[in-house]
Structures are given as C-alpha cells and as structure tokens.
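Methods — Computational structure assignment.
A single polypeptide chain was analysed. Its primary sequence is given first, followed by the predicted tertiary structure written as structure tokens.
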Amino acid sequence: MAYLLIPLDDAIVFPTVTATLPIDVGEEERVFLLPRTDGEFARTGVVAEVIEHGHSRRGNPVATVLGLHRGLAGSAVADPDDPERLRIDVQEFHDGHPGDDHTAELAREYRAVVEEILELRGDDGRIAAFLRSVQEPGALADTAGLSPEFSSEQKLRLLDTLDVSERLQVAVELQRERLAELQVRSRIRDDVEAGA
C-alpha cells in the first residue's frame, strides 16, 4: 500500500497513540509517519489515521493522528498531485496475538518492573491503572515508547522490533535499566538524608 510520507524529526509515534503534530496531511485519511534522525530515515514507521487537520493560531498546518500499526518503508516516488511530497510503499505489519507462555511471562515481568518504577516515583495510580488496561502484548511493550526518559535511539529500537515477544524483551530491558537508575538515586538520597 502507498501512503503520503510524513517525516518526523522531533517525534516518534507508536501504534495506539494519538498525537497532534505540526504536519501537513492535505486531504489524506491515512499517512505514513516515518522517524528521521540527522536526515536519515528509519526503516520502520507507523501507518496512522488522520483524525483531524487544520491550522494553528499562527497559520501553520497541524494534524491529530492515531497510530494504527507498524510498517516497513519501501520505495518512494513524488506525489503526482504535489511533486514536493513523497508517496511511499509500505509493507504493513500487524502484531497478532501471541499466546505462548514466554510472551505471557515477559508481559508479567514488564508490568512488575514498571509498577516498581511507579512506586519509586510516587505515581498517583493513574499510570498503573492505564498499564493494567492494556491487554495486547505488543501494545503493552509499546507503552515503553511513551516514557520521556528514553532517548530517541531507545524508542527507535522499540519501534524497529517487529516480533512481539522480542519487543517485550526490549521493553523489559529498557525498564530494568531505568529501575536500576532510580534505585541507585533513591539509595543515594536515603544515604544523604541519613547522614544529614
């Protein structure tokens, strides 16, 4: 399938995420959001539905999009209606529903690690409740991409991981590293307070 290519230099949108972005989607109903770093396009992007589009107060185009599923970027050609834009062939990927024990165990581990992080950070329960509401393993792994603590490289690694079990494994690793950092900070803070 070919979609209008929307390069994203300052954002990475994951499936199931709704985002309002400073992008011009024209009259398109669906677009392909492809991250770009230092002028280089990622190989994996997200097919997104355009929910709303218009202009900001300053007159710049904006659109609200909903990420639907991953896609691999193929060849691109100039849009016949607007040679300034590109249409890109996309090999679409849908997560499916792996029901094996390994994936289920990774999902449990991911939830446990994130709940520990939330406890250390003093979450009021809203994020934990949101996490419990996510049932699909692929979508659960993608919640790591919502974390502002992770770098663009870490988020791209998550986006690039098409296999759901592998993606959960990546998400667990990222969250474990984050938990370890928070635990060290907490111990240092406790030591400082104890010595004060």
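Note: The longest strand covers residues 61-79.
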